[in-house]
Amino acid sequence: MHRGQSAAKTGQRDEGKDMTDTPGIVITGGSGRMGQMLVKAVLASDKCHLAAVLERTGHAWIGQDIGTAMGGQPAGVTVTDDALEAFARAQAVIDFTAPAATVGFAALAAQARAVHVIGTTGLSDDDIKAIDAAARHAVIVRAGNMSLGVNLLVKLTQTVAAALDPDFDIEIVEAHHNQKVDAPSGTALMLGEAAATGRGVTLADVRDAGRDGMTGARQRGDIGFSAIRGGDIVGEHDVIFAAAGERIVLRHLATDRAIFARGALKAALWGQDKAPGAYDMMDVLGL
C-alpha cells in the first residue's frame, strides 16, 4: 500500500508501467466464468494486451500460466495475487468480482491512475460512495450490465415509463443461473432506476421486492421485482408495463457471456483518454 500511495503523491503515473503499443489490461478473478471470458477477449484483441490476471491469495491457479490454468496453450501471463504490482504496470482493470474486493481494487486502481471497469453487482450504498471517491483520481466505468442490448433496453424503459401514467404497473422479472448470489440482479436494478427516473420518482421509495405470503394488494406506482434462479441461464430481463386490458413487455435475452466481455473491453479502451470521473455504459455507448 505504501508504494502505491507514494506513486500517487509524486504523480509518476507511468513509472513501472508495461510500455507497449497497446493498453495493458488486468483481469481480476481470472478463474471465474466472467474472468475466463474476459481473459479470452483480451487475448483475442489486437487493441490491447493482457498485463496480468489476479486471483485471491491461496487460490490453486496462483503461479500458473493463465492459458494453461484454463486448459489451453500458455499465454505468457502468470496468475498473481499481488494487485498493487499488477495495477502499477497496467492501463486498465476489468473487475467482475465481489463488492468488498471491488472497493479495494478501486482504491488501488486510482493510485495507479488505471481505468477501472466494474461489472460487480450487489454493491451497497457505502460501497458505491467509496468507488465514487476513487473516481476523483481515475476513470471508473461502472454498470450492472455491459451489453449494448441491455443498455438500449434501459433507455427504452425510461422512455416508456415517462410516457405512461401510474395506471400501468411496472414489474421487472429477471432470470439467471443457479450460482448467482445476489438478487435482484444488477441489470434489474438498472432497469428499475430507469423506470423510476422516467416517472420522476426515487426507486427506493417505490421498490417492491421479495413478495411472500399475505402481502396485501399491490400499491399503485410501485416498481416490482421478481428473480428466477436455475440451470445455466446467462441472463434474461423483462420489463412489464401492465394496465387494465393491455400489457407492454420489453425483453432482453443474453445467450452468451461474451457480450458482457466485449462491452467491458470496449469500456476499458474508451476510458483511456477520459478525465477522472464516474461513468457508465451509457457514456461509453454514447446513449
Automatic annotation (TrEMBL):
Coiled-coil annotated residue ranges, if any: none
Keyword terms of this UniProt record: Amino-acid biosynthesis, Cytoplasm, Diaminopimelate biosynthesis, Lysine biosynthesis, NAD, NADP, Oxidoreductase
Active-site residues (renumbered): H176, K180
Positions of NAD(+) binding: G29, G30, S31, G32, R33, M34, E55, G119, T120, T121, A143, G144, N145, M146
Any GO MF annotation of the entry: NADP binding
Biased composition (Basic and acidic residues): 11-20
Reactions mediated catalytically: (S)-2,3,4,5-tetrahydrodipicolinate + NADP(+) + H2O = (2S,4S)-4-hydroxy-2,3,4,5-tetrahydrodipicolinate + NADPH + H(+); (S)-2,3,4,5-tetrahydrodipicolinate + NAD(+) + H2O = (2S,4S)-4-hydroxy-2,3,4,5-tetrahydrodipicolinate + NADH + H(+)
Binding annotation for (S)-2,3,4,5-tetrahydrodipicolinate: H177, G186, T187
Keyword match Transmembrane: no
This protein's record includes keyword Cytoplasm: yes
InterPro entries: DapB_C, DapB_N, DapB_N_CS, DHDPR_bac, NAD(P)-bd_dom_sf
Cellular component GO terms held in the UniProt record: cytoplasm
Family: Belongs to the DapB family.
Protein name, entry field: 4-hydroxy-tetrahydrodipicolinate reductase
Organism encoding this protein: Yoonia vestfoldensis SKA53
